[in-house]
Write a structure and sequence with these properties.
This is Thymidylate kinase. With 268 residues, the protein is α/β, with parallel strands linked by helices. It is built from nine helices and five strands. The chain has a single domain, classed as P-loop containing nucleotide triphosphate hydrolases (Rossmann fold, 3-Layer(aba) Sandwich). It is globular. The chain binds adenosine-5'-triphosphate (ATP) and the ligand Cc1cn([C@H]2C[C@H](O)[C@@H](COP(=O)(O)O)O2)c(=O)[nH]c1=O. Adenosine-5'-triphosphate binds next to helix 2 and helix 9.
Amino acid sequence: MIPSHERTDPGAVSRSDADGGQEVRRGAGPARGLFIVFEGGDGAGKTTQVNLLCTALQQCGHDVLTTREPGDTWLGGQIRHLVLSPDSGEISPKAEALLYNADKAQHLAEVVRPALEQGRIVVSDRYVDSTIAYQGAGRALSVDEVARLAGWATDGLVPDLTVLLDVDPVTAAERMDNRDRMESAGDEFHRRVRDNFLELARRGGGRYLVVPAQLTAEQIAAQVLQRVSLLAGRDIEAPGTTDRGGADRGGADRLRPEATGSCEAGES
Ligand SMILES: Nc1ncnc2c1ncn2[C@@H]1O[C@H](COP(=O)(O)OP(=O)(O)OP(=O)(O)O)[C@@H](O)[C@H]1O
Ligand SMILES: Cc1cn([C@H]2C[C@H](O)[C@@H](COP(=O)(O)O)O2)c(=O)[nH]c1=O
């Protein structure tokens, strides 16, 4: 099994065609881990699923890093405040796109790539598709240009798996309480964002898993675990079904192509 972030990604290639030639390249260095991303609209349940997956993987002995965009570096924290605070007022669409991409570039350099190079499983709450959907389709900038910008910011690093939690507006509204600057952008904006997420998944093909967000958290987690088990080369059980001792067991070796078998039966 070659993690897709180490190879040219067919889904991203087709997206690159559609988006006017965004070149998807291998990242620098021999990354060995797995890169799993959760995408979807506000209130889709991404953070809930990131946490469930992380717990399940750790329970199986995998070495997992959970992270998010924007805001998981010092610089990103400053940017997160700027883009989400209602006090920021009017930010031009291009300035917003550059801010989110600055967060992304720092996140890749400081957090994601080093962890992948250590062989860890990186699970990120949002990544490039959020930028394309929100700043491209949502803000009505050129989707092609925003995709190219995000590809540049990330050196074309493509996730091994993107889980899209597709949330309808009614479900999203029920799950959001105090709305931040992006969440307050209006129904039309969020409709464009949703449509674009679905379009990216449709074009990206095999490296996407699209799950309706109105399923229960447990139902969604089961679908995700089934898919991640295929990537990791062994069954990953839902949290609570095994007791393997957590992240301190390491786990980069379990991601090698030859690592097979279930978590229950696997070596520790
Ligand atoms: N499958 C689900 N069914 C019902 N409620 C859920 C489900 N998943 C999450 N929730 C609830 O919906 C709310 C939003 O969930 P969560 O924070 O995981 O979403 P999110 O996609 O990360 O949101 P945001 O993008 O706005 O940060 C929380 O109150 C959470 O408990
Ligand atoms: C990465 C990224 C995010 N956004 C938006 C999406 C959300 O409205 C917020 C992040 O809030 P969350 O509670 O952490 O989901 O920012 C965006 O517009 N562009 C992006 O690239």
